[in-house]
Amino acid sequence: MSVLTRSSSPSRRIEDYALIGNCCTAALVGRDGSIDWLCLPRFDGAACFAALLGDDDNGRWLLCPAGKVVHSSRAYRGDTLVLETDFETEEGAVRVVDLMPIGSAMRIVRQVIGLRGAVKMTTELVIRFDYGQRLPWVRRVDQALSATAGPDTLRLVTPVDLRGEGMKTVAEFTVLAGETVPFVLSWHRSHYPPEPEVNAAESIATTERFWTEWIDRCKYDGPHRAMVRRSLLVLKALTHNRTGGMVAAVTTSLPELLGGSRNWDYRYCWLRDASFTTRAFLAAGYTEEARDFSAWVVRVAGGDAHQLQIMYGVAGESRLEETEVKGLAGFGGSLPVRIGNAAHQQLQLDVYGELMAVIYECYAAGIDSAGDEWGVIRELLGCLEEIWEKPDSGIWEVRGEPQHFVFSKIMAWVAFDRGVRIAEAHSFEAPLERWRAVRDVIAAEVWKKGFDEKKGALVQAYGSTALDASVLLAPLLGFCEATDPRMVSTVEAIQRELTVDGFVRRYIPHEDLDGQVAGEGVFLACTFWLVGNLKRQGRADEAAAIMSRLLTTANDVGLFSEEWDPKRGMQLGNFPQAFTHLAMTISALHQSGQL
């Protein structure tokens, strides 16, 4: 019997995937019932299903009807990460339920439910450890299929009769209306015994209850409530439940332009992204997540403040060396496929501002560690006093020569501003006069060197006339008012020079700036920032219209990628993207007046 096969053809789209996760790692499930991406045991672990970045032989788990599908649809079960995909054939209909149970064990639970008639099903399990490169040793152990390679073992338990065929595990079975057929795939270290078996139906019920109870704590009740709740669920799924670290996305090397080389590993915790995410959590009432991140920051930033990095591993690891995986063809042929991220060694001054902004909001919400982090904060600001005048690599992590990026200077201002506010509000010991003086110097310098009078806009870097959409955050973080004439003209310039079909580009890429030749799509987060500016400028109707268009770039289950291709109408970049989901959430909060 033939099984659906695919290659790295451009006909596959990023938006074809849905997310399931357990707050330790996550998997991507295609519309066709194939799980094409799974890293174990953490978000940044090696993938055992890597078909997303290659072809089926690089690892996947297909579960779908064996015959022709005449119609299919999918949706999350309520406000959860329990995914339901319905398939209709000429013989009947089935539902495939996919999820990852919350807990210490790493599992995927799949259940086939017969809805109508008798549907012939097929499954194909292709396990390839180490990013699709390593064949496992497969055998039967205690009525389960066991696949081992070095330190890793995957164990599949199901009542379906499985067989080996061409280095794959396959099976065919028929599901009648009212029947359920479970599959439980569990990971464990090969030198340890397997985790105890679980009941699939109980796991589904427990997982559904976890997500439902978590999202019911959400205090937001404004515009686009359903999308805000979905975004918060995604942000929670990208947060490691034991360390408090938040990854930027669950994928690596999904291209920012199909066929291009801007393919980066986003499975790490950026201080910037995590800080903004925590801000969204706080505004929605999730103080526990904010407290966990605050503790994570103290752990990674403690010690020598000069060693602060812009990103870390999920538990705070600092070594994220970048390498290329040669055995994968790339998504849509987009090479290279990278693991690790060399940008972790860059100086990016803006992270100090983002950290201080969220720490300020944590203090305002009554979240602190009994003052324990104030010493760390003082060290960070002391370091920033020494380095804020240096050129850096900026928010976009350009790989060309460092520059005096305007947004970096603005965020240095934010850092000192929030440090002053925290110290004043809590009577903490601090060199307040010095911090106030530095804050004033930075503000004056930004308007003198970073504002082009002829163009009437804040520019990308000192001495440049190029625009950069990151400055749209300036009024949203209190550097200036959105109604300041200089900001109004900046917004107009960005709309004039950086928008494509109403969506905002980050900047105009060129090789000298970022070391990359290929272009990219429009940047969704920047467009959400534009919405915030327009709302504050009293252009509410225009803001609402752009917001409505932005929401159409989410896929059918409400997931955003990093970028959007307006010409092809398709998602680009790593997925699902925390930066986009948090920007959407904060934009909605701005529209509702809650921020």
In words, what does this structure look like?
- With 595 residues, this protein is an alpha+beta fold.
- It has two domains: 182 residues, Glycoside hydrolase, family 65, N-terminal domain (Beta-galactosidase, Chain A, domain 5, Distorted Sandwich), CATH 2.70.98; 379 residues, Glycosyltransferase (Alpha/alpha barrel).
- The chain is built from 14 helices and 26 strands.
- The strands form six sheets. It has a 15-stranded antiparallel beta sheet that branches. A three-stranded antiparallel beta sheet has the order 24-25-26. A two-stranded antiparallel sheet has the order 16-17.
- β13 and β14 form a beta hairpin.
- The longest helix is centred in the C-terminal third of the chain and has 21 residues.
